[in-house]
């Protein structure tokens, strides 16, 4: 099983989940491994290099998202999107272009996996590899997105004076008969 997960998520993403101290139960949960692993492999390891994200999408044979669906997700903001169908369901990858340069992974299901602890650990481990960066988790917020109640978890990554900061998000939206989890990395373009 480890070899299969390593090849699907990329060795670095899978190793990050295990090395960063994810408990065995969480590391073994396929839904958490796949969701957080995809985010790490794409949005942490390759983004903000859009060419690297496109290359990953091509190598993994992700389907290009139809323009209508992309426009529905991003509104008037420019961007690109891909879809990956897996045994666990459909994952959506979007790259939003300025004013915010954002990489997001979305997954809808009947229930959200218990991903927050593993996601926090992966973010902390990644932030520790960023020279001069500091990661601060903000208090969770509840709001409505698209008319549905949503829980927002946010981390601010500061890179020091005069350097561009980033926001990392986990958004859980409870829609009718489904829950969408969106993991995102956003860079405010100045």
């Amino acid at each position: 099983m480890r070899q299969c997960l390593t090849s699907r998520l990329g060795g670095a993403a899978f190793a990050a989940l295990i090395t960063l101290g994810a408990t065995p139960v969480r590391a073994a949960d396929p839904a958490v491994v796949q969701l957080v692993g995809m985010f790490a492999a794409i949005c942490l390891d390759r983004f903000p290099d859009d060419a690297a994200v496109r290359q990953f999408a091509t190598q993994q044979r992700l389907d290009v998202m139809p323009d209508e669906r992309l426009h529905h997700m991003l509104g008037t903001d420019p961007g690109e999107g891909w879809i990956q169908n897996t045994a666990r369901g459909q994952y959506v990858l979007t790259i939003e272009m300025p004013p915010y340069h954002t990489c997001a992974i979305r997954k809808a299901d009947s229930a959200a996996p218990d991903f927050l602890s593993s996601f926090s650990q992966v973010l902390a481990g990644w932030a520790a590899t960023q020279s001069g960066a500091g990661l601060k988790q903000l208090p969770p917020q509840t709001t409505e997105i698209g008319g549905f109640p949503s829980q927002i978890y946010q981390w601010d990554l500061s890179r020091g004076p005069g350097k561009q900061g980033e926001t990392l998000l986990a958004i859980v939206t409870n829609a009718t008969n489904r829950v969408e989890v969106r993991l995102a990395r956003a860079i405010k373009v100045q």
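Confidence is low (pLDDT under 50) at residues 1-27. Residues 2-188 form one domain.
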